[in-house]
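Sample entry (274 residues):
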Amino acid sequence: MKLGLINSAWVQAGRGTSYGIWKTREIGFDTIDICTDPLDIDIRERKLIRQECARAGLPIISVACVAVGLTDFNPSVQRFHLGRVKAYLDMAQEFDAANLLLVLGEYIWQREVIPPAEQWATAVRHVRALGEHAAGLGLEIALEVEPFQLSLLNDVPRMARFLAEVDQSAVKANLDISHLALAHQPPSAVEALRGRVAHVHISDCNGKVHGDPPPGRGVVNFPPSLEAVKRLGIDDATISVELEYSPDPEHIVEWVAEAHDRTAELMRAAGLRP
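Predicted structure, serialized as tokens:
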């Protein structure tokens, strides 16, 4: 498997696009995931991302998108986010990416006003349509397990059920190892997603709340999870390091390098990397 980095680590530390791309390559990552909104950047920034990644020899594997409005109770908001996610998919195809990492968000109003089944059905309907758009572009959608109490997809059984109801081959799952730990999912649980995993995220946590520090900075027991990933046989997939909001942005290079080295070591031990 390849080892990648989500470029939000650099963005949140205030580093520029070119800087982040070239530092990602210099540190030793094989690939990069891009976290940017096609509605917030212009053609020059899109061209810069493509050109700098090509020059650095750093393939773009995934583009990250959070689209909580897909299940909003206002149809106009749903339509806007359908169009927005399609713009993300078009940008991902322009970047020659493999997948769009999609976060659906949470039930609103504590599941007390809008029937949860209605929000779920709305998400299924929209993701199925987006999956058809992705398939037409030669892309996959990777839905992320989010470990929060009200998240639509907050554990493996819900993810498996959702994928079955969407019933679109281009729509698969992202396995975020720290999220699975926070959701108290045993490594063996991912077997339920065999054949439906497109992408993997890795970071650590304190076992209580979302944090995304480098592996080794928290309590996640990585070897069993990585062994479970290996058993899925997704050798062509990428494990991307996710680092959010470094506590010391002035030393972001050291933070990212530590995450690279520790993850590479864990992957080698699991037989996932030479």
